[in-house]
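P.,

For your records, the input lines for the assembly:
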Amino acid sequence: DQQVKQNSPSLSVQEGRISILNCDYTNSMFDYFLWYKKYPAEGPTFLISISSIKDKNEDGRFTVFLNKSAKHLSLHIVPSQPGDSAVYFCAVQGRDDKIIFGKGTRLHILP
Amino acid sequence: GAGVSQTPSNKVTEKGKYVELRCDPISGHTALYWYRQSLGQGPEFLIYFQGTGAADDSGLPNDRFFAVRPEGSVSTLKIQRTERGDSAVYLCASSLGTSGSRQFFGPGTRLTVL
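Structure tokens returned:
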């Protein structure tokens, strides 16, 4: 059974608008929640993370929100830019440092 | 280069053959991870090294898969008697090895088993 679920395989957003990517997880024992970005033929690149003791972390255009009671994580990108078009993986990391990834959401930024 | 490198970038082999995939981690990173990404899926954990020893190999699918890291730097993932279902992108990542430290991924090796 999937521990990390990204229910939207793809998302299209107009350039300049806000992109919101969502993720649900099943286990409350994770220490860190992560977002990775992946371009074709490249490995995943770390984007932003949040510790389980926080509910928001912001880094420039990227903000991650954590709702522990709902076991829900979201990534907000504002304003969206053409270079943001990529596959975004939600992931969780426990004390054993293994990362468990979701299936990814392909984000298309439309001109 | 400063990043994680993996060779070859692409490998095509026939069913039943043996393959080796190589990973060069970032210098100074003590932790090294192998993941496998099948089509339409996210990367899935295979094995984790802390130094030379395999700290966790619970993700290896069966005994045809084996990985080594003899000197605590370069790692080789070995797959015996390859099957078509082994076709995937094999990703390597490294980190400083402290709890919660960021993992940096290589570009991956795309393995195709015909």
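Two observations worth noting. Chain A has no helices and eleven strands. Residues 7 and 20 of chain A are 13 Å apart (CA to CA).

Regards
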